[in-house]
Amino acid sequence: MSGPHTARLSYGDFAAAAPAARAALFAMGKAVDDSGLEKTLTELIKLRASQMNGCAFCIQFHLNTARKLGVAGEKLDLVAAWREAGVFSDREKAALAWTEALTTMPADAASDADFARLLTQFDETEAMFLTLAVAGINQWNRIAVALRFAPPV
Q1: 3-class secondary structure, 119
Q2: Predicted pLDDT of residue 1
Q3: Is residue 66 pLDDT above 50, yes or no?
Q4: Distance of CA 17 to the CA centre of its chain
Q5: Torsions phi, psi of 116, nearest 5?
Q6: Nearest alpha-carbon partner for 118 in 47, 126, 77
Q7: Going by CATH, does the domain composed of 11-147 fall within 3.20.20.70?
Q8: Domain coordinates of the chain in residue numbers?
Q9: What is the DSSP string of 81-107?
Q10: How confident is the model at residue 86 (pLDDT cuts 50, 70, 90)?
Q11: What is the mean pLDDT of the chain?
Q12: pTM for this predicted structure
């Protein structure tokens, strides 16, 4: 019998059993990577969404990636409190606000005001790819949380 934190399926088992699903998720991520958005920015939003969704696998994965990319440690330490932290650029704050709106999806999420605020820092194409990045990490979070992937080392 498995406990509440026992992996139901490993990431490797998922990848082997559902290669087309994994490839589709990777393809969306590659489109975001190829869009020109800063990789450091997309790692911050993936980290924030993963925190909100309680996905240990994705939190560790994106912390590892962000560190390799040279994201400042203070940003990684404070991303959960980004509004109060005083270390994020206006562009990063706009992206993090959009990430939270799309991750929580309350009835008024992604309002015209939210989108207008986003467009003060991103053009429409960038906003579209940022939206794809948030959608992609939320898909990964839901898979990894449901299957309880163990965090990568």
Answers
A1: coil
A2: 45
A3: yes
A4: 24
A5: -60, -40
A6: 126
A7: no
A8: 11-147
A9: GHHHHS-S-HHHHHHHHHHHHHHH--T
A10: very high
A11: 94
A12: 0.91
